[in-house]
Write a structure and sequence with these properties.
10 strands; Aldehyde Oxidoreductase, domain 3; four-stranded mixed beta sheet
Length: 167
């Protein structure tokens, strides 16, 4: 999914996306999602955190940069795709930017549906696309100095399972 080949995200999807420097409270976010629809039977969440070790090097800090406006639009397109693929009630993506220390939260992806299968699949789909398609740039501070972090081969492989079958 390339952002340049995708339609603009819907206003509803944009409302489901936040990019911010401040931390988020998982319990509060989930409570707000659940309160929107009494038919919710499943809530699935993924919280990504900063690790203190990456590619064999200690990580003292990770700084995330983004392009405001473009980043939210790209994430909203991903959310729209999930809402089209699965019968979800709602979805939410909160992604942090700025300097983050090990153990701090980076990202929250949450989905709600009537049943767990759809909620799990949609949550996994969203995070797989976020890892590879959302325009974030990550720089780690290590004992050897600063280094930019590239997408992992495993992230690219995970993304392939969501490709539409050829006709």
């Amino acid at each position: 999914m390339e952002a340049t080949n995708q339609p603009a995200a819907s206003a509803a999807a944009l409302a489901r996306v936040r990019v911010q420097g401040a931390d988020f409270d998982l319990s509060d976010e989930v409570a707000r999602l659940r309160a929107r629809n009494p038919k919710v039977g499943a809530v699935v969440t993924f919280v990504g955190t900063v690790r203190d070790l990456n590619d064999g090097a200690d990580v003292a800090e990770m700084a995330l940069e983004h392009y405001p406006g473009m980043t939210e639009q790209a994430i909203a397109v991903i959310v729209d795709q999930a809402l089209l693929r699965w019968p979800l009630f709602d979805a939410l993506v909160v992604h942090r930017v700025g300097p983050l220390k090990p153990l701090e939260q980076i990202v929250l992806v949450a989905t709600t549906a009537a049943h767990r299968g759809e909620a799990f699949a949609a949550c996994e789909f969203i995070i797989d696309y976020l890892k590879t398609e959302a325009p974030f740039w990550k720089k780690e501070q290590t004992p050897a100095g600063a280094r930019w972090v590239d997408a992992r081969v495993t992230d690219e492989t995970a993304l392939k399972k969501w490709a539409a079958p050829s006709s």
